[in-house]
Write a structure and sequence with these properties.
Blueprint lengths: L2 H14 L3 E7 L5 H14 L3 E5 L10 H12 L4 H12 L7 E5 L1 H7 L1 H11 L3 E4 L11 H6 L3 E2 L2 E2 L8 H5 L6 E4 L12 H12 L6 E4 L5 H8 L4 E4 L1 H12 L4 H20 L1 H5 L1
Helix pairs in contact: 2-4, 2-12, 3-11, 4-6, 10-12, 11-12
Length: 278
């Protein structure tokens, strides 16, 4: 289904008249089986789309929480092949929740682009966010991914000006990911007025949904972002909770239950966003 699954989810959200919640977790964090338990519970907890981080040794755009999550996963033996297998196992019980892989190009390059795209599609991946591939490198991965009907989701930032924006959006599909702050993940809270203006500007250039992430840590912040954006993305706050729970000795269903209870509060905040703004 690939791109169609993402499009169907945003169409359903529009029909419901509410923004969506996108939840980021790192594949294999803190271990493979616990990670699967967390991911399996996300849709029921209220996550509309799932971003699954591909652990990498040099995550330049990620803050301390996601860096630590990646390190936990790598230390546990997580690989890109195991990440695809994780999605394959998730798909045994869930054929509708969109899953986007997010990360860096190096692991994909090492895997082999053609083989990766074939395996990702077979596993049930719907789209890719690859933060270190600019539009000038579209032939490397973006165009082959789109040829396989995998969404290639671009990041737009506060520094993406009017001259650059059409280039950024040219081969974007699925949705546009607006980075609400200048800096790494989890480093600051977003300015909701600035985000609202940015979303309005982006929608003047594209018909794609706009999801906003970086710095959203609470149900209240998620609701504020959801008042104007098509979706709010929460990552660092969720992976921080995973790290804390793992440090306390939790794993498997116990850890997943704690994390997804928090996700449920985020979902409640997002679902109330438009009502609060009305």
């Amino acid at each position: 289904m690939t791109v169609a699954r993402i499009e169907a989810r945003f169409a359903a959200l529009k029909e419901e008249g509410r923004p969506g919640l996108v939840v980021f977790v790192t594949a294999g964090d803190p271990d493979l089986e616990t990670s699967l338990e967390v991911i399996k519970g996300l849709p029921a907890a209220g996550a509309d789309l799932i971003e699954l981080g591909m652990p990498f040794t040099d995550p330049m755009a990620d803050g301390p929480a996601i860096q630590a999550a990646g390190l936990r996963a790598l230390n546990g033996g997580q690989t890109l092949r195991k990440t695809l297998d994780l999605v394959r196992r998730f798909r045994e019980d869930d054929a509708t929740a969109p899953i986007i892989l997010m990360g860096y190009f190096n692991p994909i390059y090492s895997y082999g682009v053609a083989a990766f795209l074939t395996d990702a599609k077979m596993a049930g991946i719907d789209g890719l966010i690859v933060v270190d591939l600019p539009t000038e490198e579209d032939p490397e991965l973006c165009l082959p991914a789109m040829a396989e009907d995998l969404a290639f989701i671009r990041l737009a930032t506060p520094t993406t000006d009017e001259a650059r924006l059409p280039t950024v959006l040219r081969n974007t599909s699925g949705f546009v990911y607006y980075v609400s702050i200048n800096g790494i993940t989890g480093s600051a809270a977003p300015d909701t007025a600035a985000v609202s203006a940015a979303v309005t500007r982006l929608k003047g250039h594209t018909d794609l949904p706009v999801a906003v992430g970086f710095g959203i840590r609470t149900p209240e912040q998620a609701a504020a972002i959801g008042a104007t954006a098509d979706a709010a993305v929460v990552g660092s706050a969720v992976v921080s909770m995973i790290g804390t729970a793992a440090a306390e000795g939790l794993s498997g269903p116990d850890l997943a239950a704690r994390v997804n209870a928090f996700v449920a509060t985020l979902a409640e905040g997002v679902r109330g966003a438009r009502r609060s703004a009305a």
